[in-house]
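By way of example, we now present a protein record of this kind:
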Amino acid sequence: MLRYLLVLLLTVTALSWPPEPVAALEGRELKPLMWGWERHFAVEYEPGVYRGQPVVEGTVTNVSPYSVISVRLLVDSLDANGQIIAQKVAYLPGDMPGGAHLFFQVPTKPAPAYRVRVFSYDRFESQGGNLR
């Protein structure tokens, strides 16, 4: 019985602990998870408008000889001084064999400038050989 009450007390305490304020989360800058992504991808982009809303659109090209899947982009909205005012991670559907490119269009907040980087990706490796 005592053990049950102790577990109950710890559970109630953990659930009532105040969560981290949202304002503190907003101050954290996202950075690409994959170091050296620039060696594997070429990214071209420009600001645009789609249905009256600001977007960043362009292409990502896989310049490596490897096939990749689950590519995610990090789109930074920048102020006039080049400081990040908003960030968004966007998923690119489809796989990209070496040399392939994919078009993207990501809704953004209005900003004087933008920066697009590859946030993450997975290298796809087939098992090779003959299937039986």
Summary: The chain has one domain: 32-124. The mean pLDDT is 80. The chain has two helices and six strands.
